[in-house]
């Protein structure tokens, strides 16, 4: 609904206007207003923010480079001495030359098993273009514990298959695995979402018309006479093609994809892509690493969307939640970003906007930096609980592609309202400054200290300042550790830690992948009024 500030003219004025020359209407032109502004790059605050975020990004890049090496040098030498390509070399030769590879969960298993290192969880997953087709690629890394499956390996493999199913992507498996990790068999074999689920998913995806291509690039079982190519091509009939070596197997896999006869049918309008008006790395100086410092999420949006053009929705209402339409690499998106705590007005605005996106079949991008919904007697009486319920219902039921990026804090019910992991976004990424927990460490420590004080009071005692500090310190330390993005990514609570400057590219690749799947009509549940 559009409402201008002027009163409507009377009938006589309308008649006179009919013959008059139309006035200039530049403000109603086709152009969408750009957002964003030039930061004061010389200010102490900007420089501090930039340096601290840059340090986080440098650490991320250094750790990622170590992980990309896979197993130790001895394991890599043994692998290559057998005439086999390393797993990342296989992926590089499989995908179309010069095309990107969107890797997921590089930090899976990071510091998860004590002194036992499992780089990338022992498996590489991601989306790459093969013979012009976007495919979900799963490649075992035999340099990591012989390619055996740890619990995190299974979880990462299943997450990759979930991405393939949600986005209707063909699956390519580059198999070089020793099977289940036997010392941890109780954690990888018997349960529903353990090793057997991989094969269950393959059957289900095949029934849904999602192609599966498998290239056994290593000694999958043991010796040639037990499970090799000659046996399965000539006698058992298990395999379809005989590959002479890794390169030949990858060539055959590319040929198989080429013959799938798949044509991507994108259900949205696509416009020519435009670069944002502002450099992406300015995000470092705008956001920084101090979550207690506020920043305007529209400045982030300006460095992600095409031409920095953002058609804001309900700009003057519920302004702690920013909503609006834009394009990323030509694809239309609805963007929901946080500029503070969620009030009733913000929640109702978000609900309304999600409904519009679903009606128009437009993907939704969530930029999460949220402490939660507003609390207090006044806000409870004002209906924050039911208004918040409206928003989380809309987020849960929306069938358009949802992509979440945690760009700051992600706390409590705010995580749910902004499409956290439990609300099944197609993809979820985190920045290295992000923090994820039920509440902040200091807040949690204060809550638990208050409980301890009340217990002491009932006993007629007091909690001394020293005892209170001793109680709070380990709680704050634990929340800081468990809210860290590396802790999150190690356990696959997200799909990867990304450089903030790469956000536009990552979103573009994710949107392109998501649009392979037809969007089902959204049926919302009952909104609590």
Explain the overall architecture.
This protein is of the alpha/beta class. Helix content is 41%, strand content 14%. It is built from 20 helices and twelve strands. It has helices at 11-19, 44-68, 73-81, 87-94, 151-167, 185-188, 196-207, 224-227, 229-236, 246-258, 282-287, 297-301, 344-360, 377-381, 384-397, 412-417, 441-458, 465-482, 485-490, 503-514; strands spanning 101-104, 123-130, 133-140, 171-175, 212-216, 311-313, 321-328, 331-338, 364-370, 402-411, 427-430, 435-437. A hairpin with a 2-residue loop joins strand 2 and strand 3. Helix 5 (151-167) runs parallel beside helix 7 and helix 17 (441-458) runs antiparallel to helix 18 (465-482). The longest helix is centred in the first third of the chain and has 25 residues, at 44-68.
Give the structure's gist in a few sentences:
43% of the residues are buried. Helix content is 41%, strand content 14%. Strand 3, helix 5 (151-167) and strand 4 form a beta-alpha-beta unit.
Secondary structure topology:
Elements: H1 11-19, H2 44-68, H3 73-81, H4 87-94, E1 101-104, E2 123-130, E3 133-140, H5 151-167, E4 171-175, H6 185-188, H7 196-207, E5 212-216, H8 224-227, H9 229-236, H10 246-258, H11 282-287, H12 297-301, E6 311-313, E7 321-328, E8 331-338, H13 344-360, E9 364-370, H14 377-381, H15 384-397, E10 402-411, H16 412-417, E11 427-430, E12 435-437, H17 441-458, H18 465-482, H19 485-490, H20 503-514
Parallel strand pairs: 3-4, 4-5, 8-9, 9-10, 10-11, 10-12
Antiparallel strand pairs: 1-2, 2-3, 6-7, 7-8
Helix pairs in contact: 5-7, 13-15, 17-18
């Amino acid at each position: 609904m559009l409402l201008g500030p002027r009163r409507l003219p009377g009938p006589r004025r309308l008649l006179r206007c009919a013959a008059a020359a139309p006035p200039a209407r530049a403000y109603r032109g086709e152009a969408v207003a750009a957002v964003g502004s030039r930061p004061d790059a010389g200010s102490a605050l900007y420089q501090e923010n930039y340096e601290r975020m840059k340090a986080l990004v440098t650490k991320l890049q250094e750790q990622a480079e170590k992980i990309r090496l896979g197993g130790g040098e001895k394991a890599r030498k043994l692998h290559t001495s057998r005439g086999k390509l390393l797993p990342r070399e296989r992926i590089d030769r499989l995908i179309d030359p010069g095309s990107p590879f969107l890797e997921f969960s590089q930090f899976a298993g990071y510091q998860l098993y004590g002194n036992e290192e499992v780089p990338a969880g022992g498996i590489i997953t991601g989306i790459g273009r093969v013979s012009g087709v976007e495919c979900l690629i799963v490649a075992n890394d035999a340099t990591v514990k012989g390619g055996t499956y740890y619990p995190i390996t299974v979880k990462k493999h299943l997450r990759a298959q979930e991405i393939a199913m949600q986005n209707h992507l063909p699956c390519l498996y580059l198999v070089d695995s020793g099977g289940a990790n036997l010392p941890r068999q109780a954690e990888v074999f018997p349960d529903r979402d353990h090793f057997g689920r991989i094969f269950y998913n393959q059957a289900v995806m095949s029934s849904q018309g999602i192609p599966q291509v498998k290239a056994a690039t290593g000694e999958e079982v043991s010796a040639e006479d037990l499970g090799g190519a000659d046996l399965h091509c000539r006698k058992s009939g298990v395999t379809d093609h005989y590959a002479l070596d890794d390169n030949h197997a990858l060539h055959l896999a590319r040929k198989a994809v080429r013959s799938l006869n798949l044509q991507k049918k994108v259900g949205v309008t696509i416009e020519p892509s435009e670069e944002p008006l502002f450099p992406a790395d300015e995000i470092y100086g705008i956001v920084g690493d101090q979550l207690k410092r506020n920043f305007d999420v529209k400045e982030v949006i300006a460095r992600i969307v095409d031409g920095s053009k953002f058609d804001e929705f309900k700009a003057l209402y519920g302004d702690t939640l920013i909503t609006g339409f834009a394009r990323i690499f030509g694809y239309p998106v609805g963007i929901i970003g946080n500029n503070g705590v969620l009030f009733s007005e913000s929640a109702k605005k978000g609900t309304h906007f999600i409904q519009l996106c679903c009606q128009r079949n437009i993907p939704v991008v969530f930029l999460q930096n949220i402490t939660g919904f507003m609390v207090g007697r006044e806000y409870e009486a004002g209906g924050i609980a039911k208004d918040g319920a409206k928003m989380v219902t809309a987020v849960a039921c929306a069938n358009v592609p949802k992509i979440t990026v945690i760009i700051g804090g992600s706390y409590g019910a705010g995580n749910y309202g902004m499409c956290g992991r439990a609300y099944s976004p197609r993809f979820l990424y985190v920045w290295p400054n992000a923090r994820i927990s039920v509440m902040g460490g200091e807040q949690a420590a204060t809550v638990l200290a208050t409980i301890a004080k009340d217990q002491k009071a009932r006993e007629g005692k007091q909690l001394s300042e020293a005892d209170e500090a001793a109680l709070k310190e380990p709680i704050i330390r634990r929340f800081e550790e468990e809210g860290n993005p590396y802790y999150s990514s190690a356990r696959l609570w997200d799909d990867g830690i990304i450089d903030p400057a790469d956000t536009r590219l990552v979103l573009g690749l994710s949107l392109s992948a998501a649009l392979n799947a037809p969007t089902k009509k959204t049926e919302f549940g009952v909104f609590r009024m």
